[in-house]
């Protein structure tokens, strides 16, 4: 589904019943006013004991609770509420002035589904809470080009940034896929929103420059309180940390990784299954020069695949491997979202064999085999205009439609947002 930023209530199919438990009348009234303005029903309570008495008579969709309350504090209240079978589907959300990572972690450990830091942000509080209740993931494209960023009048619509995609989870966890020039636009958005205490995972497919060259310009790295784990494939004895540090050393960049103020950790990945940030992640080695990984994430019955860069050879090529194509199709099988390399039109590809990228017809064949619900065409050649990308999209839709596959085929534009 396509989504436009700022359309909070459109994301929720019904009016929500929200309980607010806070001994501060000022903070509770602020939250109540924001929620009622968006059309939701709100009930306020001044203590945990008060809300426990009222629960049998009312069924909330969400309970917002302060942590620092006299008597029954928010932690203990959350623990008791999570133990109630009748509230199994109710979202429990902490709302506190405590912005410490320890308190956030503790809240999730005892069963909280989300955590808001007070004072609440008027522009984002309600949409974020609605997404949390609806368990909606938000997919955003910050750069869709490959190889080189472009800045031409015929390439404005799709944008000129190189790969960067984010998947934001309902509880605020941020997964960032690749760090091309698009990550600077992401950085600007996070800094403009005054996001603090960001807990992010950066999943790099490989260290070719169009996928890592803007990493040093990611502003949240230079702010204390943020924490990021950078994951990706090592190359023989060269670790992910080595790869990131190397492009910021000596004559290449004036700032080193030692000057990051955020807490940064690194993790070397190979093909296999992992748990990253509490999310099940599968990886697959892709057909591309060097070591390159595709990612598949599973969450709450939904699946998301990011497969770029990747070359699918024509069947008459000496390099074609039916076994590899089937493995990749299995990796992407029935995914809710598949983002995949579709760099070339079919008539361009013969001049680009062994560059490590795919063309329309072979991507269509992958879609026929894997049958994802939605496929996003990605990593467009820098020489292609907006019209050329439109041409690839039309051809792909024609091929997929002719195969009787129900997949929705899209070519996302820079800064476009989707719900998953």
Jot down its keywords.
420 residues, alpha/beta, Rossmann fold, Metallo-beta-lactamase, Chain A, eight-stranded mixed sheet, seven-stranded mixed sheet, 11 helices, 26% helix, disordered N terminus
Q: Can you characterise this structure?
A:
It is a single chain. The chain is built from 11 helices and 20 strands. With 420 residues, it is α/β, with parallel strands linked by helices. The chain folds into 2 domains: 2-134, Response regulator (Rossmann fold, 3-Layer(aba) Sandwich), CATH 3.40.50.2300; 138-419, Metallo-beta-lactamase, Chain A, CATH 3.60.15.10. An 8-stranded mixed beta sheet has the order 1-20-7-8-9-10-11-12. A 7-stranded mixed beta sheet has the order 13-14-15-16-17-18-19, with helices on one face. A 5-stranded parallel beta sheet has the order 3-2-4-5-6, sandwiched between helices. Strand 4, helix 3 and strand 5 form a beta-alpha-beta unit. Helix 9 (322-331) crosses helix 10 and helix 10 (360-370) crosses helix 11 (386-402). The N and C termini lie close together (7 Å). Residues 1-12 have low confidence and may be disordered.
């Amino acid at each position: 589904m396509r989504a436009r930023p700022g359309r909070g209530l459109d994301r929720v199919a019904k009016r929500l019943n929200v309980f607010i438990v806070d001994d501060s009348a000022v903070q509770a009234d602020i939250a109540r006013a924001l929620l009622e303005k968006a059309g939701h029903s709100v009930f306020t309570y001044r203590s945990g004991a008060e809300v426990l008495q009222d629960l049998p008579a009312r069924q909330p969709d969400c309970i917002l609770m302060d942590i620092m309350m006299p008597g029954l504090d928010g932690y203990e209240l959350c623990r008791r509420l999570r133990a109630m079978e009748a509230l199994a589907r109710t979202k429990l959300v902490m709302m506190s002035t405590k912005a410490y990572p320890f308190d956030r972690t503790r809240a999730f450990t005892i069963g909280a589904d989300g955590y808001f830091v007070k004072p609440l942000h008027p522009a984002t509080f309600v949409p974020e809470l609605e997404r949390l209740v609806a368990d909606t993931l938000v997919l955003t494209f910050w750069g869709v080009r490959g190889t080189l960023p472009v800045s031409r009048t015929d390439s404005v619509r799709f944008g000129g940034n190189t790969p960067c995609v984010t998947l934001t989870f309902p509880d605020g966890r941020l997964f960032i896929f690749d760090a091309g020039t698009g990550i600077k636009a992401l950085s600007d958005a996070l800094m403009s929103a005054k996001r603090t205490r960001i807990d992010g995972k950066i999943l790099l497919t490989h260290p070719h420059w169009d996928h890592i060259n803007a990493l040093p310009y990611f502003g949240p790295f230079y702010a204390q309180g943020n924490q990021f784990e950078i994951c990706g494939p090592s190359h023989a004895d060269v670790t992910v940390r080595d790869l990131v540090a190397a492009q910021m050393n000596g004559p290449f960049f004036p700032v080193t990784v030692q000057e990051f103020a955020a807490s940064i950790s690194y993790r070397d990945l190979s093909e296999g299954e992992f748990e990253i940030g509490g999310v099940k992640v599968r990886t697959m080695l892709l057909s591309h020069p060097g070591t390159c990984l595709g990612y598949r994430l599973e969450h709450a019955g939904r699946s998301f695949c990011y497969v770029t860069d990747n070359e699918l050879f024509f069947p008459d090529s000496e390099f074609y491997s039916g076994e590899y194509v089937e493995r990749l199709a299995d990796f992407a099988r029935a995914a809710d979202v598949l983002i995949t390399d579709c760099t070339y039109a079919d008539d361009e590809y013969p001049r680009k064999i062994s560059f490590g990228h795919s063309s329309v017809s072979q991507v269509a064949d992958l879609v026929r085999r894997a049958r994802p619900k939605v496929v996003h065409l990605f990593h467009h050649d820098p020489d292609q205009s907006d019209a050329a990308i439109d041409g690839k999209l039309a051809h792909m839709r024609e091929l997929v439609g002719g195969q009787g596959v129900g997949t929705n085929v899209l070519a996302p534009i820079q800064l476009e947002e989707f719900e998953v």
